[in-house]
Amino acid sequence: MKNEIIAGVDIGGTKIAVALANTDGELLLIARFPTRLELGPHSILDQAVEEIERMSVELGARPSAVGIGCGGPLDRRRGLILSPPNLPGWDEFPVVGVVERALKVPAVLDNDANASALGEHRRGAGRGFSNLVYLTISTGIGGGVIIGGELFYGVCDGAGEVGHIPVLLDGGPSCGCGARGCLESLCSGTGIARRAREHLLAGAQSPLLSDRADEITAKLVAEAARGGDALAQSVWDETIRYLAHGLSSVVVTLAPEAIILGGGVASAGDQLLAPLRRLLSERVKILPVERMQILQASLGGDSGIHGALILGERALGNIPKG
Ligand SMILES: [Zn+2]
Question: pTM for this structure?
Fold first, then answer.
């Protein structure tokens, strides 16, 4: 295959990354800028397209295709963003058509969790595995499933929604999906911070969290737990118990070679992974969990842009609209 230039765009609710790479997978240029939601989707995409044009001039070569990762829900085949909660005003927005018309090259779209799963599979912690499940644990919990080296989509592209595995049998906190007691409602960064605040409001004592009740984040809970704070430690332990409970369903259903955890909460590293491996082994008896790798994502915040670039390779040879 001739070495061509691919552009990737990773659209998030707070920031956008744009990159150029070659078809050998070598990242050539990358730029990041905040998502100015108030500008609306057309202006935001104009910014991304301008950045691709600017980088093309710098590189002296134009991209032959574009891959786009974006928060869902979206319609991959029609290239539409539907009504993403983190991108207000993007309802039914034809992101693929707009990019193809602007750059005159084919583009493909997928959700950001699938893009990150692809990125980690091909260029990160998932290299060498044929079957893996990727989770991003940040504001929410997203996921992507790779089976036989390819993303698995399922009905309505709905596979991989591991954040919405029911963890509590009755009730539990309401989740953005409309259900209650989902893994995301308990173990996302938002869920962890909320549980810590609830304990404080109920009168629990915490030397490291009590005077910062209004600014509690999952990162702060993890730090306080490392600092010996008993309440923070109990919230963290509970988080890992919920995660182990949710992931045990994934393990026994797919027996993946690896589960890869990305996102801000996973940056706690072994504070999360070591007890999670132990609890999963205790919970699942039918399979040898120790034969499965439970790993931290290795591309950090760049899993999504690497995935977008891989998606772009798949658009090569497609016919652009417009
Ligand atoms: Zn849910």
Answer: 0.94
